[in-house]
């Protein structure tokens, strides 16, 4: 039997009772003959509490010290999980990210994993121990400093360990039953997906589905690690993310649904640069300024210029948290570029339809837009990939748009399946 | 200007405001031209909270994981102190015990420092940074595991760093103004000592004065590091522990007081083994059994055997927390040794008179015992060293005994000097 890597988030480790429940679950897997390596997040609100403390000390904490501070959170949860396992008659060893060989670059607060050298982990496995590893943290290769991986970090730790240990599966435990065809808080009869491809999951994650972070899925795809997303509050099968058929099942491509799901995102804002001279290099100058300000753009639309004026409008979406920075960067180049004015709108939302099957099925776009029209939803911007169509709509129309699309593509389940428990960020 | 090492305890780091106050104090020293290295304990009740969590998970946490858990406490406080220093326009780098090169043996929960290799600390000092080090923790030389140093650990970290860095002074910040001639909660007009020798401080610490731990003083004496015990809540000079005259003062041996202070201890119990056959080897068998049970004895008294019976009684004191273990170990050898019965008394207290001057001054003992008699205090057991006389009395008589002794040796100050703020264990 091979190695099973599991990851438990903060909501699964909220208190001593939750930790004991997680320990029982881990021990069951060990009993079934697998070696088990577990990545853990900080307990419940620990990270928020630590960040509150930092904010009370200084408005501008140095990134190095912020990482040192936050890394204490997983140290607490991993030691407690190891103790709880010990209490059940099994032995466990906890390791910090550094001890587990999670080597990162030196970007504090959003470090990237560049190598995993799990010598102490494999030794502990060889000695028969269950291994608990601090998620979300590592040590920088050049400076030997403690780093944290940023959002989705613990998931990424788990998948990276699974790849380094050549594990059979990476189980991501969360507070929902798996990946759904839409957010069950908006669409109560959304269906849980049994299986989704890495490609679809990447688009879902990029388009606002919060269940798995982009980096984790990218890592899984690169190293071909099957990811099983499931609830720590039930024994149900969750959603398998992989390019292979679900273990134990035949390939089911023939019956594969065209659409995997409908994602939505309310975290973006839209900026329109009005009256840009339609000359070579003007648009480039605008996007150069935004890149210099370290802003990641999402959708970009340039109108065809009105022939009479030779002026054009350029619109783009970006994270709302970057809105102020982007407006400042653009205001600074107004004289140079000579545009007319800037419009800022943060009352928008993005709705995306995702499915690998749409590649070969014409008519998806018209059906999508028809559903939106029937629901009285106005489309602002449009962008597409091979397996995705996204539209920007009024923030107030997002729920209606998601529901109408979900129904139009026959994604509704016969009865309500979903249970939503809460949510964590890490 | 040389290196100043400081140590701040948990009560000096209780919350964000306290941390900011400590940061201002650290920065003042840096401004005066010194390099500063600071050892910190965990904030306020953090350690107790973590231990409560562990107790909620399992009644018997493995020592390795308990150390991993507890070490998170200093990680939090050190990062926050570094942030607060940064907020004042200075740069600070925090280091875990392991990063700072605090190398220990592998005894989890009570590890001993066997080496300090502060390469990263000296490098950071060289780069102009203030250095914050996690107290109370290290890394084991052989197993590379996180260890904690047990009681008094953060003080010991500070003195060990001071020795390794060849610091000018090790300042131990606490919640009282220094070392007093007696516990100010019992003797309100106890006087703060300006200076005390290592030898006297060792006896004071061993006899119940909780202000500095024995190990810290031993370390200071071995490496001749002047220790300045002072309050983090005031700017007053505290007490210098060293064998040299206080810096800036002439040697004052001629005027050195005979008595440094009166210490008391309510943490011990007394066991009497009644009716031990007065034969060679019987006492040895008793103490062997206690040693096997890892029990540290304090005072030991054996009565002269009654000639008629050839039986003797052996009494000794030990930490109350070891009482049950000792009684069990002794009960197990009753058949072998053939003693009559065991008596257990935990309603005792120890009062000690300490002073390097008593070596050369006869009459100290009679004056001490006379004071106790006048106060109506009955003496149970007696033990002496060159610079100390200790007596065991009824627990209820301890306060009277301390006050009577303090007055008899003219230690009372003209007015009340002491302010006591609270207390921490670490």
From TrEMBL, chains A, B:
Belongs to the aspartokinase family. The keyword Amino-acid biosynthesis applies. Residues 271-345, 353-426 form the ACT domain. This is Aspartokinase. Pathway: Amino-acid biosynthesis; L-lysine biosynthesis via DAP pathway; (S)-tetrahydrodipicolinate from L-aspartate: step 1/4; Amino-acid biosynthesis; L-methionine biosynthesis via de novo pathway; L-homoserine from L-aspartate: step 1/3; Amino-acid biosynthesis; L-threonine biosynthesis; L-threonine from L-aspartate: step 1/5. It comes from the Bacteria. One of its GO terms (cellular component) is cytosol. Gene3D superfamilies: Acetylglutamate kinase-like, VC0802-like.
């Amino acid at each position: 039997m091979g190695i099973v890597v599991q990851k438990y988030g903060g909501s699964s480790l909220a208190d001593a009772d939750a930790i004991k429940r997680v320990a029982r679950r881990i021990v069951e897997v060990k009993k079934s003959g697998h070696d088990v390596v577990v990545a853990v997040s900080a307990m419940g609100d620990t990270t928020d509490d630590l960040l509150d403390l930092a904010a009370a000390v200084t408005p501008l904490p140095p990134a190095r010290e912020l990482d040192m501070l936050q890394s204490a959170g997983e140290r607490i949860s991993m030691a407690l999980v190891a103790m709880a396992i010990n209490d059940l008659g099994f032995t466990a060893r906890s390791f910090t990210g550094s001890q587990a060989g999670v080597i990162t670059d030196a970007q504090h607060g959003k470090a990237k994993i560049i190598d995993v050298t799990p010598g102490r982990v494999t030794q502990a496995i060889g000695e028969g121990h269950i291994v608990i590893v601090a998620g979300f943290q590592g040590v920088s290769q050049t400076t030997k400093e403690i780093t944290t991986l940023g959002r989705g970090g613990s998931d990424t730790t788990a998948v990276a360990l699974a790849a380094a240990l050549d594990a059979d599966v990476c189980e991501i435990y969360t507070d929902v039953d798996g990946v759904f065809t839409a957010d069950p808080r908006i669409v109560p009869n959304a269906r849980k997906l049994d299986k989704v491809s890495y490609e679809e999951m990447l688009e879902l994650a990029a388009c606002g589905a919060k269940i798995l972070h982009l980096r984790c899925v990218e890592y899984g795809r690169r190293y071909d690690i099957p990811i099983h997303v499931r609830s720590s509050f039930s024994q149900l099968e969750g959603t398998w993310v992989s390019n292979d058929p679900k273990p134990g099942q035949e390939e089911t491509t023939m019956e594969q649904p065209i659409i995997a799901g409908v994602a939505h995102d309310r975290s973006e804002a839209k900026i329109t640069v009005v009256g840009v001279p339609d000359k070579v290099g003007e648009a480039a100058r605008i996007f150069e300024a935004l890149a210099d300000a370290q802003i990641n753009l999402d959708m970009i639309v340039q109108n065809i210029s009105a022939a009479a004026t030779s002026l054009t409008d350029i619109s783009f979406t970006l994270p709302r948290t970057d809105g102020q920075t982007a407006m400042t960067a653009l205001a600074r180049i107004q004289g140079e570029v000579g545009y007319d004015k800037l419009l800022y709108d943060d009352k928008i939302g993005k709705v995306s339809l995702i499915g690998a099957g749409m590649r070969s099925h014409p008519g998806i776009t018209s059906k999508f837009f028809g559903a939106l029209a029937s629901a009285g939803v106005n489309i602002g911007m449009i962008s597409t990939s091979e397996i995705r169509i996204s539209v920007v709509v009024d923030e107030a129309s997002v729920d209606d748009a998601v529901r109408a699309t979900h129904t139009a593509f026959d994604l509704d389940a016969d009865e309500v399946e979903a249970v939503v428990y809460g949510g964590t960020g890490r």
